[in-house]
Amino acid sequence: MQYYKQTIIDTPCDFSFLATIHSHGWVQLAPFRYDPVNHRLEVPVNSKGVECLISISFDSDNSIILEVKSERIIGELELSEINCLVSRIFGLQNDIGDLHRVINKFPEYSWISQNKLGRFLASPTLWEDMVKTIATTNITWDQTIGICRNLTTLGKPILGRNCFPTPQEIALIDPVELSALTRLGYRAKHVHELANLIVSGTLDLETWADSSVSTERLYSSIVSLQGFGPYSAGNVLRVMGRHERLAIDSVVRNSLSAQFYKGKKPNDLQIERRYKKFGTWAGLIMWCDVTKASLIERLEVSKSAT
Q1: CATH number of 126-239: 1.10.340.30, 3.10.450.50, 1.10.287.3510, 3.40.50.850?
Q2: Which residues on adjacent β-strands are paired with residue 56?
Q3: CATH domain 3-96 topology
Q4: In this predicted model, what pLDDT tens digit does every residue of 115-138 receive, in sequence order?
């Protein structure tokens, strides 16, 4: 007998389900499965003893409709944990009111507030976000999609869907075998090392969720790990709702070159100077610039289908 429960989660007035879904490419990565016609995001979860399949959509008030399915009864404590996971996925815990106050000073960026941008789709766990970030380095996007699809074959099946593998599951696999199974290549050793650090208790990612920890301290902690340079560390911070770091890569340079530098590639210092005026929101506003054309197009298509 399957367990089923539907609940409604209230959202901040500056939240947009569709803007968050399309904030970056994470929605294309397994085990996420997105139905663009019904605007429904589905993901199997195996975290902190919670094993279920969750389906997330939204209503006319932009509140989140959460549906939970499981092969066993889900208790109140587990439901509370699931709500926390959904909050993390959509960045509901992030207060972005100050972002819109900053944007009000720059009319040319009013489109950010108008489209309720500012939240990034995240995975249910920081571990998963970090592994996916490793899978984006020095590789094509299609290869990243394939790697994430392969990784989910190593996770626990829940109602016919495989979860993203836990650190414990990855730690049990030899790095060479992990590379062969997932196509991670040299990145497999970094993923395996990260898993071992977590399993051994040397690295406690839960402490990174503490808002009192400075972004600079988090950045230093991330870049100290194998497989994480300035760009990948900036990307991890981004999905955590920390936007002081710019996370500059070739895609960023090429986009900004065409928009603001007459085709000449800007160096990192030039880019940093351009966005310095936005303070702690510099990285977010830079990303909005980089993705503006494609993001607005996706939002218009999505809204027309609603």
Answers
A1: 1.10.340.30
A2: 41, 66
A3: TATA-Binding Protein (3.30.310)
A4: 999 999 999 999 999 999 999 999
Structure tokens at 162: 């495989």
Strands 3-9 and 50-58: unpaired
CA–CA gap between residue 265 and residue 179 (Å, rounded): 35
**CA nearest neighbour of 124 among 204, 1, 42:** 42
pLDDT in tens, 200-209: 999 999 999 9
Residue 297 neighbours by CB distance under 10 Å: 11
- Which pTM value belongs to this model? 0.95
> In this structure, what are the phi and psi dihedrals at residue 80, rounded to the nearest 5 degrees?
-65, -40
* DSSP letters spanning 231-300: HHHHHHHHHTT--SS----HHHHHHHHHHHSTTPPPPHHHHHHHHGGGGGGHHHHHHHHHHHHHHHHHHH
Output Rg (C-alpha) for the chain, integer angstroms.
Answer: 19
